Amino acid sequence: MAVGTPTPAGDAGTKLENTEHGFVASPTLHSSLQHVLVDLVNLHLVGKQAHWNIVGANFRDLHLNLDELVAVAREGADTIAERMRALHATPDARVATVANASSLPQFDAGEISTTNAIRLMVSSIEATVGTMRHYHDGIDDADPTSADLLHEYIAKLEQQAWFIGAEIRDPSPRK
Hints:
Radius of gyration: 18 Å
Shape: elongated
Largest sheet: 2 strands, parallel
Structural class: mainly alpha
Strand content: under 5%
Helix content: 55-70%
Strand order of the largest sheet: 1-2
């Protein structure tokens, strides 16, 4: 069995299991993509938590924008997880794994003001992008195709941080 090829889920494999013989992720590449996956999954969850519990000024605009963020995070998580499977690595997005491994700040239960939610969501987006940037060079060295996927989601998430964060920004003073 090739290094990094997952073991069968059951007691015995099938004749079709692992029939493809393409590129196999190294343990380091697998681990790097797993860190990215965990943060994307948690960003999706934190975004929905905020979406359901925000109150205050500009509620509707933020409520709708959080759905856009959640869609980006969900799509990104699915893309990364499927890339991992294509490289014979097994993604792990179980609740305990996400809770233990995510780099995102804690999001408390209950209602949250739109202003505080914006600050926390921007911090969560920045943490997710920070994880992607932290692992990017190693991923790029091992598999430029996976790094290209990171580029796409870094751009989308940074745009979301701008959209959401602009709600509470003051204009820069003109010089």
